[in-house]
Amino acid sequence: MTKYIVNRLLGIIPTLLIIITLSFFIVRVAPGGPFATERNLPEVVKRNIEAKYHMDEPMIQQYGRYMFDILRGDLGPSFKYKDYDVNYYIANSLPKSIVLGSWAMLIALVFGISAGIIAAVKQNTWIDYASMGIAVIGISVPLFVIAPVLQLIFAMKLQWLPTSGWYTTGEGYKTIILPAVSLSFAYFANIARLTRSSMLDTLRSDYIRTAKAKGMKNSTIIFKHAMKGAMLPVISYLGPAFAGIITGSIVVEQIFRVPGLGKFFVQSSFNRDYTLIVGVVIVYSLILVFMNFLVDIVYAQLDPRITYK
Amino acid sequence: MFSKKKIEAPLNEFDQVIVGNSLGKDAWKRLKKNKMAVIGMVVVIVYSLLAAFAMFLPIYPYDQIILDHQHLRPTFNKTAGDLMMETKLEDLYFKAWRSGSLVVTEEQSTQIKTWIADNKTNTVWNFCYAEGERQRAAGTFTFSAADQKTIDRLQSRIETEFLISVEKLFWTDPVTGKTKNLEKMDYEDILPVYASITGLEPKDVEAQTLTEIRSQVLNTIKETSPDLTDEEYASSLEMELTAMGEKGIHTIGKSNLIGKIQTTVTRTSERTLKQEIKDGSAEFPINKTVNLSDNLTAEIQASKKHDRHYYLGTDYSGRDMLSRIIYGGQVSIAIGLVGTLTSVLIGIVLGALAGYMGGKVDFFLMRLVDIMYGLPYMLLVIICMAIFGRNIMNLFIALALVSWLTVARMVRGQVMSLKNSEYVEAARSMGASTGRIIFRHMVPNSLSVIIVYSTLRVPAFIMQESFLSFLGLGVQAPYASWGSLVGDAVNGMTLYPWKLIFPALAMTIFLFAMNFFGDGLRDAFDPQSKNQL
Amino acid sequence: MSLKPNAKTVLEVKDLKTYFKTDAGIVKAVDGVSFTVHEGETLGIVGESGSGKSVTNLSVMRLISSPPGKIVGGEVLFEGQDILKLSETEMRSIRGDKISMIFQDPMTSLNPFLRISTQMVETIRLHNKDVSKKEALARSIEMLKLVGIPSPEKRIQSYPHQFSGGMRQRVMIAQALSCNAQVLVADEPTTALDVTIQAQILELIDKLSSQMGTAVILVTHDLGVVAGMCDVVCVMYAGRIVEKAITDDLYARPSHPYTEGLIKSVPRMDTANKNNRLFSIEGQPPNVIDLPPCCPFHPRCHKSMEVCRHAYPPIKDLGNGHEVACWLYAEEATRAKALQDAEQQEKV
Asked: What ipTM goes with this model?
């Protein structure tokens, strides 16, 4: 098991390397640069600035320097915001994004799995139709439609919840409800549908028939015998779900004005703030890769047939 | 010779008719039973037809900006002029209330103040309008002279302003006497036409047009890649012009010249029309032919500008939401379909190769797929869009490049399992080539799986496109997509909720339909759902 | 018609009918099946695949998934009580405890996510609430030892995928017998296994059932297995029992042309003429959707008569409980009448 974990962790390194390299070069290959709008500067000043950020060196040298800095945990100075460096911005905004994402994931998992199981057990009843109807809505309505509509209804018309902001704006936990719910909706829907179909598949399997032939109660069959098998597809869906929540949070943070990482990402892409873009991508990728790793471990724990090689 | 013999249905040993049971037929039968899937299919077809034939629909141009018609609310019976007047009156009544000339009770006044504090602008306006109209009818309120003048001026504008569009231009050659549609003439032939109406030499016209084209191209370059140095711009302009070639330059020049001629036609007809309106002899809508000179005739259409009906309201530049939603749908659906098709094709080719060749090819391709799966690819797409310029083509390429992964895996799995099946062995033993085996035998056999997957993939593609457009990274104005329409609407959605609701609804209904149809298709093709022993 | 005339009747199935609704029509998978199982007796049910053997057993356990399947008629009397009328809760106390079942495919019939110990202990404690976990575990280990699993103390903590197919089927048997069920339903227990292991498993079932006095319903398509193990044999065809007899009787005097064909198609070592080709029954078993009234075997029968095409044959007792459903054994008058009735029916 330990060996498996170590191997799996080692496998992460090339992926991360590719991500860093790819994003490093993509942003630099494109025409234009972070200081292009300040073109009116005298040539000397411009050269000074470039020298300060080592932009006058050959690309490979910049790359090597950057990789070395990353190994030390330094993501470099921001090209656009002169006061602080990238580490500062990420350290400030990442926790907010993580809180938001975790809530969204939690809501999606809890409600999705319960709805899926209930729908499977009560197949072809109104409960089944109702929860699957909601799930289809969740899949069909894009996040950037759900979020403003919820905002319009619950914050602006009914005024139950604040329209935007974060804990620090004084409204406390209430600020997180709308963004988290909107962000979770699509994943709730997918998880509910997956759970339902895999639960139905499992309930049709031979070993569930054996359990029935033993005279077991339905509830015991579902939770003791069917649950583990039915959860496997859901677990493997969690990897893509994490990726989706990360991208989704960009939209949600924009709509609900959450001062998280997503906001920085879009802004820095527009500004060509090289270090900030690459820094944010690295952080996102780290989270994603780590989550995928966790998902694999959980999967292996659940399924005894998987051997650790 | 071939008499029409009635084919006798095959019977089994119990004298029962044996009904043939092909997979496709069976699936179709099951799909027909699934009501939601059929409804979904119909909706998808309707949408696709609307999008495909958008240009033939009797709707206003999606990119025509009429600033007077900014943010008009959706209505069924009122014209744009009515709404403009209402908006003006709302504004005037509100100002009158503030200045104290519109007298309301103390209670109402407090109520209005709370509304203002709550940011309920629409409610305030509606109230002021209703109250003002009531009082004006009752005679307890009259506008000040200045206000009345404003109203009258607006009224006359609403009644007299019109829009002219030039439908067709004809040129009669003075030498041969043949009449030709300008659209169908060559650039070189149009040059003298323009010269004749301006009184310039054709040579000068050509030089002038060329200069214009250069600055046009330069502007587009500046738009797509800002922040270059002047030298870089100069060199990329030359490159672009060379790339366009003479033919490309002539196309642009032709459309420029026609545009100019159209403007001239519009100007002259405007003058005559205005006179006619003054005389009261004009009756809208007008379709007529104007003779610009002895040789140049134009078919023009004129309609009253403020007589338009906006069933779904207008946006911030006074563009018709209905046609924007339809044309936006065209873009979204096209990207969804073409994008899915491209990514599925890439996936099929790579997956089939990996599955059939096995060995190193397979290992390399699958590692690539694994690594790409681990990438937060939406982030990379965002970066690419932000940096390489935001246009539909880039968007489409970026999305298609990251969407082939699942298809490739799926096809690979299918091909691997089919590789050892008897019929493939048989084909190979008969000397069929690898390509033939893959694309004539294996791919068709996994087609049902691919079709089902693709159907479910289309809404995902549309969502990704709209997601980027929403962030401002996708389709750019004047073009629209559902995502960009929603994105434009989010700011100010309390004031102008129709801008959010209609595109969101249009998109949601389509995605719904697509998902139901896809689900139905999957269930229909899934042998497990075959209720058979 | 039992070998032991005084043995108590444990299970009696009367005119059982189980139908399935499908897109193509109603499938009469089991259409009027009756048989009796006595204490300590082994009843064999033989037939081709699709003849309704498994559905019969699942109906007895009330494990038909509904929809699409439904038990539409008949009675299943267990110790005189019709279990088709019991509530689901009452039925659960019978399943696994009084009647237990072994399934065809041992590879998929054990839960791959749970340890063998968990699955066995849970079976025992399900029906004996006062047994502690420890006792149940000890009992399980004992059962595993009984079915011949080496070092059961260690092996019980394994997961099913760590066992071979034969071993898994032994685990299934141990599990099924751990509650001292009165009836053991074995649904083709050896079909998925190697031939060498088949014999071991059957021997095991035979040994344990006689040790514990369990009645066994053995479903198989293998006539050799039946000859070796069963006291009584039912031959099924298209959802009905076409012949039922004491095993020796059946082999000595196969009366239905189908049974005859089945027995002839078993390769034998002792036939005089080795050059004879092996007998085979022509054609395929019928698709049982919307069958017209007729003997379903008639298209494949070399002795078929006009009447076979128009009416299902009545059941005739040939003595010593040897029952057969074939027009060959009906009286001329009955045949003529049936033919007449059928003609009349067709006219209407």
From this structure: 0.83
